[in-house]
Amino acid sequence: MKRFALAGNPNSGKTTLFNALTGATEYVGNWPGVTVERKIGTYKKLSEPVEIVDLPGIYSLSPYTPEEVIARNFIIDETPDAVINIVDATNLERNLYLTTQILEMKVPVVIALNVYDEVIKNGDEIDTDQLSKELGVPVVKISAIKETGLKELMETALAESIKGREARTIIDVKKINELIESLEDEFEVKGVSNPLFHAVKLAENDEIEVENHKDLIEIVEKVKDKLDDKTFGNDIEAIIADSRYKFISNKCSVCYKKSSNVEVTAGDHFDQRLTKSDKIDKVLTNKWAGIPIFLAILFVIFHITFSSNFLFFGKFIGFSEEAADATLGIFFTPDGINSPGVMLQTALIAFTDWLTELLHQLFEVMGAGSFITGLIVDGIFAGLFSILSFLPQILLLFLFFAILEDSGYMARVAFILDRIFRKFGLSGRAFMPMIMGFGCSVPAMINTRTLADDKERTATIRVIPFFSCGAKLPILVGVAGGIVTLLGWNGADGIVFGIYVFGMCMAIVAALLMRNTSMRGEVPPFIMELPAYHKPSFKALMIHLWDKTKHFVKKAFTVIIASTILIWLLSHLSFKFQYLEDEEITSSMLAYVGRGLLWLFTPLGFGYQANLDGWGFVFVVGAVSGLIAKENVITTFSTLATAINAVNSSIVIDEALGEEVAPVVAMIQATGIHVSGLLAYIAFNLLTIPCFAAVATAKAELPKGQIWKTILFWLGFSYLTAAAVYVCFEWWWTSFIVVALIVGGVFAIHYYNKRHPLDAPKVKEA
Ligand code: GDP
Ligand code: MG
Which of 85, 98, 145 to mutate to test ligand 1, by most ligand atoms within 8 A of the CB atom? Predict the structure, then answer.
């Protein structure tokens, strides 16, 4: 099978093109450095199927970053049948810099002139015939997003792969060309493939070439000594770069025709577009306003998703209980109007409640015993429904995150945060994988491959789970519901928002801690070019959501169902394997095992506390089941809810508040836990060992031997933080002690580090 590689700048649309060609649903994001692995797929619409490889985004073929090495080695060593060089047409000058280097390899090349839809929208035009003549390779206009020109692109690539192509350089400086020619001869004698490419790179003083061909350096040095360029002296690398840019601006940029038919260079065009983005950025990335704006945007998103007092209407309008009941509480409650997220959730719950009732009746008619009914209806279905009820809010939240990301705003947030992160020992680059952590820690941890520094990478992997993922959301919402009922304060959106922000703050604290103790080191520089703002594509958004749903359903029917069955059995069987009725839950195996761990969690507020009256084991069991998958925490609660509420049937929950999570909230209330204990419970679950999948990923991505330390770190950090949260909220005066301990610790670390300065950073040997 023929194999085509997609190569291009970061954010030029490679992954969008890859998805369109292969039908894959890989991650598309409007910021540089999202694709870190190469992805492989098949295009089937030609006479023969061809393999497509999506390479990481790169600006050049010099080995400055790991991505550049991956892409370069792929083209040299695995000799694809053609390289499809994807070029962002609205950014011609910068993108063609890489093109001039790819041309120096002996490989068929086709230019995919992407984002051409924008060019048309601006009323502009690009003379592709002229451009193709200058570059010596075919140029095809495409729009990866609108999926236009793709067939032509692939047909051209196939034709080129059959024709073959000789390497050629557009460098045009007499003395340098002579040098390259003589080096090329040497490489040919040595029998090295791609002699021209190696010759140019060696002349550019490329780290890898210099290392591999020490014998030829002499030739370069001789020429170098005699060079005396007006601007660049004898800096061959600079002279070559200058020659590439001259070629681009003199020969290529002129192919860009502005709508007024006046010829301008693409550079001018680029500047104009930047001014518009610049104006927006003046506000959004403002030194002072940037972060408050980010937080405000986040709050609005949480309000739309979680508030049952949408736009605070409850303050002005009163609704009667009867009216709310008549509409199943879907649209409003006596407290106010539901936000879209809550409406969807309530509607879904009304439906699953009806279904549960139906199942109960069905089992009764069939004459099923309480064991079977309990296991299937109260165990499996209650667990599945409880987690399913969060799907609308999870999807809504991800829709908003995807919009923020695809529009280019999240890249700005990384930029704003770089200023702060830097002080805490991380670069803004680390923020991209962290933001991905809001979705799921697994891809986020893989994405840390873009971080070159091992220590920064380890620290980042460890704090990624603090960015609350989709699976933790039900815990936050469920427990927030509990807090709302206990406090009688209608602010679930505020609580969930607060927990997200708390997670981010703890990530910064933990990073600061590590970068000053076990992970000391310099912060690598972070240079990021901000991508242009653009309207998010509907298709890309749908792909995000569909991916999320698929992942969710798959997990629900495997890991979660299995854990639910296990929990139900353990909670309804005694050690003698006798079936226990709901009311007897306290004699179950689960209760015994959970109670055995109570001492451990007493400092966190869900152990031997008198107010819990022995119910602390529910929270312990929930937290432990969450180590497999975080969804399990809430499914465990709802599986146990029927039983616990049967024991504590005397407690009547406030109907109006928290109706959407009623059984779980009722259970939380029935256990008698304090708000302080609930807050500590959230902190513990948020910061502790993430799920199985994330631990396995961390093991694969971390340097050897770091996984055990990392697990210890998660356990220790979450335990101490949760304990601090508990005591501070339970007895306000303990916060003075906690603060004093923290301040003391900070001083101790600072003093120690002063006495033990870091060794001067070693210079990397070339
Ligand atoms: P990669 O980093 O090269 O893989 O680029 P992505 O495929 O992740 O795309 C980067 C951004 O450019 C995304 O926001 C895409 O929606 C957008 N994009 C990609 N192709 C096109 C296109 O043909 N037209 C427009 N207008 N936007 C595009
Ligand atoms: Mg990509």
Answer: 145
